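Following up on my earlier thread - several people asked me to post the actual chain instead of describing it. Fair enough. Here it is, all 140 residues.
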Amino acid sequence: RDLFSILIEVINENDDVLSLVIYNYYAQGSSNTTRKFYNIDKKNQTVLTLEGMFKGSDYVNVISKNIISQMRERTKKNPEDVYWIDGEIDDFTKIKKDQGFYINDENEIVICFDKYEVAPGSSGLVEFTIPKDVTKKLMK
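Reply from S.P.:
Thanks for posting it. Predicted structure:
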């Protein structure tokens, strides 16, 4: 029997931002979960996008380099943490311009990947918090 469910979760809400995620869970033999993120600037009543928050397109490269660095650090600390970098094919090289993200309660951007996007399926849903000192230089 197939199973499909949707869950909506508010990740962060304060005076400035509302970040929420919609989980789509599907099971038929095996299971898969995908996510869609929505970040709303409450003061300006607009949807926040990475492209809209950062000047120019260099944010893709800067954030991607930080994520690759975090992947290497995680693997160094725990060799069981495996990411698709430094291999031969289908390696993660950079985020998409419209990569899923949310803003956490520390006002940091958290870049999110679905199962199998940057690591084996056993890693599940993978997230990387981008330090403020990285994003501050990119802000409009």
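The chain has three helices and seven strands. That should answer part of your original question.
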